[in-house]
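Loading example: each entry is read as two labelled lines plus one structure line.
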Amino acid sequence: DADVTQTPRNRITKTGKRIMLECSQTKGHDRMYWYRQDPGLGLRLIYYSFDVKDINKGEISDGYSVSRQAQAKFSLSLESAIPNQTALYFCATSDREDEAFFGQGTRLTVV
Amino acid sequence: AQTVTQSQPEMSVQEAETVTLSCTYDTSESNYYLFWYKQPPSRQMILVIRQEAYKQQNATENRFSVNFQKAAKSFSLKISDSQLGDTAMYFCACSPGTASKLTFGTGTRLQVTL
């Protein structure tokens, strides 16, 4: 099994719908992150969490919210999806400053 | 705040040849880390090599090595003996010395040809 698992792997949703992307990890790491990848823009940080009680906004948090349900689980929600949120989303974990482990990504399409 | 710039959107190299991917960065952190990640068509993000800013020696991992020029804020990746499996998007990234809050460049798409 993968160390960092994202579900779903692919999702198509309609404008205005609420959608949740889930991430779970078996690494035992305290730190978890959500990134968004757009063509030509690289990956950008949406939210991050250093422990269960800690949530921080990243570079592009508008339109997103997160929940850290447990050390191993970190979910990203789009309360009302819009087409420009169509992107590839990555979850990552770390326990050190010099290494991060990524999930396999969720490709989200908002139509 | 950090910025990372990759000025080569696409590159091509023949199998067994050497190629260098460029990256420049800017950061206000006194200690930081630099990374090169590979993203093949499977879209998995794979760490290729990392460099801690206070270490002057350039990092090397098998066929992959970096040229870290701290004063110039440059961090290039050299791939020697290129293989078809090296075909991927390559991202340069920077993070502060306190957490893995990565700032990525826009990527360089590398094609290895026969």
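Chain A has a mean pLDDT of 94.
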